[in-house]
Design brief:
Order of helices and strands: HHEHEEHEEHHEE
CATH topology: Heat Shock Protein 90
Structural class: alpha+beta
CATH class: Alpha Beta
Helix content: 40-55%
Number of strands: 7
Largest sheet: 5 strands, mixed
Number of domains: 1
Strand content: 15-25%
Radius of gyration: 20 Å
Strand order of the largest sheet: 2-4-5-7-6
Number of helices: 6
CATH superfamily: Histidine kinase-like ATPase, C-terminal domain
CATH architecture: 2-Layer Sandwich
Length: about 220
């Protein structure tokens, strides 16, 4: 996919995520301007407050998941990632189990983590629990990062799973499916692959090192 097309899809994705809370704030402001009922005004203020918090959480999340934000060049403290994840979950139906030890990580590792978490939340739209565990992925690491979505009717769409594992064509990409495509690109850049396991009420998205290429035997027999 061309870089400009990918950038446009990511921008559309961010706009899609923000349109709901921003629209709710606009509605609340209209009520404050036109309504005399104090009870309705109080409800409007609460709507504006909660929507502003939701929009802020989504912007902070997007800044780390899609942008180039970093406090230390190419590295990000995973505690910053945990903070934006917990802020986002305040407006979600699912609960969060965070089991990652804090450390300074490559920013692309954090981007991959945040993208996979958001994909997992979309796999459990009716609520449940999102569990994040395992060491952060790194080139050459034997560890596995696993994100598990458990809840009523938890499921991952076939096209999303296909894009994550590299088995789906990029031709049908749209703002709803660009995220798993980007996650797969980030994983490959880090020397990782993404694996998906789907069971009744449970979806697990994990990373693992790409297999090392077989040594070229000809170099041992060259003359």
């Amino acid at each position: 996919m061309k870089e400009l097309e990918l950038a446009a899809l990511l921008c559309s994705r961010v706009c899609h995520d923000l349109i709901s809370p921003v629209g709710a704030m606009a509605n609340g402001v209209e009520v404050l301007a036109d309504e005399d009922d104090e009870e309705l005004k109080d409800s409007a203020l609460k709507l504006i407050g909660s929507s502003a918090a939701q929009a802020s959480a989504k912007l902070q999340y997007a800044r780390l998941a899609y942008g180039s934000a970093s406090s230390q060049g190419g590295s990000i403290d995973t505690r910053d990632a945990e903070y934006v994840v917990r802020e986002l979950f305040k407006s979600l139906k699912a609960g969060l189990e965070w089991r990652l030890a804090p450390r300074i990580a490559d920013k692309n590792e954090v981007k991959l983590l945040l993208n996979l978490i958001l994909i997992a939340t979309e796999a459990a739209p009716r609520g449940g629990t999102i569990t994040v565990e395992g060491p952060m992925p790194a080139p050459g690491s034997a560890g596995t990062l696993a994100i598990r979505a458990e809840g009523p009717h938890a499921r991952l769409r076939d096209e999303v799973a296909g894009l994550l594992v590299g088995a789906q064509s990029e031709e049908a990409l749209d703002p709803r499916t660009v995220q798993p495509y980007v996650a797969a690109l980030l994983a490959a850049h880090l020397g990782q692959r993404i694996e998906v396991a789907r069971e009744e009420g449970c979806v697990t998205i994990a990373t693992a090192p790409l297999p090392r290429p077989a040594p070229d035997e000809r170099r041992f027999f060259s003359f």
